[in-house]
């Protein structure tokens, strides 16, 4: 059978966007080097149950995400690609689950297929999905397992045959156990609240007592072996992991991190789907009140609402937390667009009119940006006022933006709804494809100091030289130099728990201890991102600076 390229190019585009370019951008602090380093230490020490970071106990997350990263390193080596591979692959598999969920819309197979195509197209082109799916954090694998839990549960809840229903519910429990092994107890809360809200909306009150048992059994059997093993290795794990990492972080006491207001995720969600909000008029016109009688759409509404509200209640918040809502948002958005095209007679003004305005406006902005950078190239505008330095590859960003606008113009002119949606998404895909190559050095220099550390600090690490780094740069230093022989300068940050343990004695250095080391003529290399700390350090010293990062030398 001859495989026609025109039938394969959407898949090839997805692979290029999510897998083809993730090996080119350096790792951004603090998250990406952290997860890469934990996986490396697992492979080097052979200890896969109790995570370590720079040789210190590090219990902020369970182990499955680290196992996935360690497996990626075993396959592809210790590099940028392997650090992000599990996130990218998890995002692609989550898209496949969105397709499976859409197929459960109803008895009309053609309608199901159309929803699946549109929902998957939206999902992969959502900016937040792309940003997290090409970034080395655990949110993408966690979203994969939570989505698998919810898809399997929904299949089980709507399956009339007892044998298959039991199988789906057991699979839901196994997937929930995998989600627990990735990020902990929130993996239990999200599916439980979603199932509860859905069954109440469906008025299936008796099933509240009958459906949970198989998923619960599957979850416990999946997570229990590691839970017992890590308790055996360190009985303090569960106290720290549950009380500090879940309860105290949520209520925002002295251990709480990233405090944000209740409404924090509203702008995050808006930005996360932003390009598709151009068609909010079409989405609104496509929906009817009767649509929410469909079980799938009710389920998607509950899932999205549970994720957004659940993560809005605690004080500690990060933008990546709400990623599990985006498969549901893709289904709901896909239904709205498809319904609009099906229910509204041509011309489809609610889809075409926004593009008629957006394309010329963005073209003018692109032209002004081009002119601005050209003036900087000829020093009419000082380089310090430019987004890009004149020597950078900023033209690629302009070309990608113009290609996007061409595709958006084609989307407006297309007669077929599917072609309209696909061309619009393809325009976003072009920008996504080049984003790793066009980030300004002004932005990446501070976020990706790995090369700077390797070039400047690496040659100075001779025997007898003490290596110190502050809390924000210690991990990337360990990754860049392939060492755990790092002492933490001043405040411990996320390494505080491990530094409190007896085996970590002497690993933390205060400013007073630094002065004593300098006075004793100990050769020292210290890496920090604080100019204030550098100015407060004892003399004589010399340092090398790149962006906000400093490599300071004493007695060398």
Question: What does the model show?
Answer:
The chain has 556 residues and is mainly alpha-helical. It contains 25 helices and eight strands. It has helices at residues 5-20, 31-45, 64-76, 80-102, 109-125, 127-133, 139-157, 162-183, 186-201, 207-210, 213-233, 237-251, 265-272, 280-286, 295-312, 326-343, 349-377, 394-413, 417-434, 441-447, 450-456, 474-481, 496-499, 511-519, 531-536, and strands spanning 52-53, 56-57, 466-470, 487-489, 508-509, 524-528, 542-546, 549-554. Strands 5-4-3-6-8-7 form a six-stranded mixed β-sheet. Helix 2 (31-45) packs across helix 3 (64-76) and helix 21 crosses helix 22. Mean pLDDT is 93; it is low at 1-5.
Give a summary of the structure in a few sentences.
This protein is mainly alpha-helical. It has 25 helices and eight strands.
- The radius of gyration computed from the alpha-carbon positions, rounded to a whole number of angstroms, is 26 Å
> How many H/I helices?
25
In whole angstroms, the N-to-C terminal distance is 68 Å
- Low-pLDDT stretches: 1-5
Share in β-strands = 5-15%
What's the average pLDDT? 93
With strands numbered from the N-terminus, the spatial order across the biggest sheet is 5-4-3-6-8-7
Secondary structure category: mainly alpha
- Helicity, in percent? 55-70%
Shape: flat
Number of strands: 8
Biggest β-sheet strands, sense, barrel = 6 strands, mixed
């Amino acid at each position: 059978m001859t495989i026609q390229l025109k039938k394969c190019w959407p898949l090839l585009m997805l692979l290029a966007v999510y897998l083809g370019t993730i090996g080119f951008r350096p790792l951004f602090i603090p998250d990406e080097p952290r997860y890469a380093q934990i996986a490396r230490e697992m492979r080097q020490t052979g200890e896969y149950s109790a995570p370590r970071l720079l040789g210190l106990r590090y219990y902020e997350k369970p182990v499955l995400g680290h196992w996935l990263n360690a497996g990626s390193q075993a396959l592809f080596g210790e590099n940028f690609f392997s650090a992000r591979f599990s996130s990218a692959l998890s995002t692609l598999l989550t898209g496949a689950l969105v397709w499976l969920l859409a197929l459960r819309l109803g008895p009309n197979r053609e309608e199901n297929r159309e929803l699946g195509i549109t929902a998957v197209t939206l999902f992969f082109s959502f900016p937040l999905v792309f940003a997290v799916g090409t970034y080395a954090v655990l949110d993408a694998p966690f979203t994969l397992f939570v989505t698998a839990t919810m898809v399997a549960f929904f299949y089980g809840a709507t399956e009339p045959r007892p044998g298959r229903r039991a199988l789906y519910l057991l699979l839901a429990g196994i997937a929930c156990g995998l989600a627990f092994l990735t990020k902990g107890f929130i993996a239990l809360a999200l599916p439980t609240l979603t199932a509860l809200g859905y069954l109440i909306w469906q008025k299936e009150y008796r099933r509240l007592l009958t459906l949970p048992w198989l998923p619960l059994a599957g979850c416990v059997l999946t997570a229990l072996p590691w839970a017992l093993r890590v308790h055996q290795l360190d009985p303090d794990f569960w106290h720290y992991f549950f009380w500090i990492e879940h309860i105290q972080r949520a209520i925002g006491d002295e251990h709480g991190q990233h405090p944000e207001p209740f409404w924090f995720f509203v702008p995050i969600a808006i930005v996360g789907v932003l390009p598709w909000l151009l068609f909010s008029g079409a989405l609104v016109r496509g929906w009817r009140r009767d649509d929410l009688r469909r079980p799938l759409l009710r389920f998607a509404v509950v899932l999205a609402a549970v994720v957004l509200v659940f993560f809005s209640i605690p004080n500690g918040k990060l933008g990546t937390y709400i990623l599990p809502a985006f498969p549901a948002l893709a289904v709901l958005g896909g239904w709205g667009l498809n319904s609009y095209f099906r229910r509204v007679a041509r011309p489809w003004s609610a889809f075409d009119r926004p593009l008629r305005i957006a394309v010329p406006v963005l073209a003018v902005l692109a032209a002004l940006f081009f002119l601005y950078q050209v003036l900087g190239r000829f020093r009419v505008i000082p380089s310090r006022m430019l987004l890009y330095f004149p020597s950078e590859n900023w033209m690629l960003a302009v070309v990608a933006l113009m290609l996007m606008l061409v595709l958006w113009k084609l989307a407006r002119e297309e007669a077929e709804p599917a072609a309209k949606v696909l061309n619009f998404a393809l325009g976003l895909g072009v920008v996504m494809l080049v984003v790793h190559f066009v980030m300004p050095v002004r932005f990446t220099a501070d976020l990706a100091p790995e090369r700077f550390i390797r070039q400047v600090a690496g040659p100075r690490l001779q025997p007898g030289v003490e290596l110190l780094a502050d809390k924000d740069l210690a991990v990337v230093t360990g990754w860049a130099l392939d060492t755990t022989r790092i002492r933490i300068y001043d405040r411990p940050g996320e390494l505080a728990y491990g530094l409190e343990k007896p085996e970590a004695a002497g690993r933390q250095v205060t400013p007073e201890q630094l002065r004593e080391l300098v006075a004793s003529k100990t050769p020292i290399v210290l890496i920090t991102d604080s100019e204030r700390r550098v100015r407060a350090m004892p003399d004589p010293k010399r340092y090398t600076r790149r962006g906000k990062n400093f490599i300071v030398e004493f007695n060398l």
